Amino acid sequence: MSAPATFRCHQTAAWAGLQACFDASGKTFDLREAFAANPRRFSDFSQDAPHVFADLSKNLINASVQALLLDLAHQCGLEQHRDAMFAGEKINRTEDRAVMHFLLRNPPRAQVDRAQAATEKIANELSLVHETLAAMLTYAEQVRVDGAITDIVNIGIGGSDLGPQMAVLALEEFRLPGKRLHFVSNVDGHELAGVLAQLQPQNTLFLIASKTFTTTETMTNAVSAKLWFEAQGGKDIARHFAALTTNVAAANAFGISTTFGFWDWVGGRYSLWSAIGLPLAIAIGAQGFRDFLAGAHAMDEHFRSAPLERNLPVRLGLLDVWYRNFHGFTSRSIAPYSSALRRLPAYLQQLEMESNGKRVDVNGQALPFATAPVLWGEPGTNGQHAYFQMLHQGTDVVPVEFVAVKKAGHGLPGHHEKLLANVLAQAQALMLGKHDAGGHKHFPGNRPSTFLLLDELTPASLGSLIALQEHRVFVSGAIWGINSFDQWGVELGKVLARDIEARLATGDDTGLDGSTSGLLQKIISG
User: Fold this and answer.
1) For site-directed labelling of 261, which of 29, 110, 272, 426 has its Cα 20 to 30 A away?
2) Is 385 marked active-site?
3) pLDDT mean across residues, the chain
């Protein structure tokens, strides 16, 4: 199977149909009228998917819009692009790489489709995946039973930090007592210093997470951690440091003998399922980690096989296109009503904005339409007392994605009922609003939201929720015809930083622009 041709979504008949639909009725669509006119609206626009129930009924869509969005998916070759990914085609064209993070959560003897079975590379890679996974989980169990190790410090950045940190916090209820996990990412030394102040070298394991073992922030922190360890009397680097990297030689030169690698078809923001997930495996154990992978695999199979009209990642991704390109909404707020999911907004920021924050298509041609929205948010109910004022009464319409959990992971009486009452009330208030002739207490309502509901927050349900978001980003990126799997936008600042770091030592501002020169001199003066 070859990669599908590039489709310009704005030139399809469906795109024109959506624009006409928006102009005729979409811009004045009223949710309150829609519910009054259709008693079945909730069931028509909600669905079950693996471990996740989704209510889309409070979004600015109707059957006509949904049908046109599905037509758009067909006309843009979404199914072919999805199938190309699952077949191991090199859909990451700018880096000439396949995109196969889904293999990381395939069961060892999973039934693969005919396209995969015919691909020797897929079979070979899956064998290596499970060999590495077994070794990583064996090591995780060894750390878990090692009573001398009380603190595990993960040193990484981006996908090597956001994913494992988010997941470890989310699954706090499943963590092994007696092990503290810390995460250091920022090159700002205050972060590492604050963690080191809590540690004893003989009780600490450092995990250095860098695919290349050259990432500036990670290696700066790793070197400082090693210097601290030795200065505090630490003697056995090999016992107290492990590396999650493909650069085994560099790790060995550092003094590390325990390494776990991954592959060039695993992007950083999709690497939680790989050896980068070692902190999570230590926290929740080998079986917990396998349950986490299984939940994600269930969502993979749903995305791969469900009809588009009942395919939740597809429906969410198409909704994102409808809001971004026709309604012109520039952002989406993520509101997890679970303190355990407090780092989910930050994780999703990288997943979506690094994937789809692109201005050119896969051929490098400028796009005449908008792509990724800004993602932002905080856990409820904290967000209600911070930015929900703007969501309800501000001049911009911001779609909100609520995430709630039916069953609490604690036994404190009364708390969870209040939490659930608040999330339901906020979604209701955004839609219904409230009339006030005086103005100050007027809520316009008709503000859209999506509601994702988990029965419980478990390793399996978290895995499914994250995979849902990955595939949703894939869908909108495929419709826009962009490469969701490169990230060239992070490179320029890195290059310039190396130049400026040298200038901070010398004061040389030759060739700099006026502002950078002035700031450089201001910083080094005195």
Assistant:
1) 110
2) yes
3) 95
User: Which of 438, 430, 435 is CA-nearest to residue 402?
Assistant: 430
The torsion angles phi and psi of 143, rounded to 5 degrees, stand at -65, -40
Strands (E), 378-524: 400-405, 449-454
DSSP H helical segments within 397-458, as ranges?
415-432
**Cβ 289 vs Cβ 281: under 8 Å:** yes
Collapsing DSSP to helix, strand or coil, 314 comes out as helix
Q: Does an H or E element contain 260, and which?
A: strand 259-260
Contact 46, 40 (CB under 8 A): no
Q: What letter would DSSP give residue 4?
A: P
Q: Which has the closest alpha carbon to 262: 304, 209, 323, 195? A: 209
Distances (CA, A) of 144 to 147, 172, 179: 8, 15, 8
Active site residue 494: yes
Catalytic residue among 125, 354, 401, 470: 354
State which H helix or E strand residue 518 sits in. helix 514-524
Identify whether 27 is a catalytic site residue.
no
Output the pTM of the full model: 0.96
Catalytic residue among 385, 407, 410, 441: 385
- In the numeric block, the tokens 């090199």 are attached to 90
Number of H helices, E strands in the chain: 21, 11
Dihedral sign from CA coordinates of 475, 478, 480, 486: positive
Under 8 Å CB-to-CB from 24, ≥6 apart: which residues? Answer: none
CB of 320 closer than 8 Å to CB of 399: no
Confidence of residue 112 (pLDDT cuts 50, 70, 90): low
Question: How many Å apart are CA 32 and CA 446, to the nearest integer?
Answer: 7
pLDDT of residue 115: 46
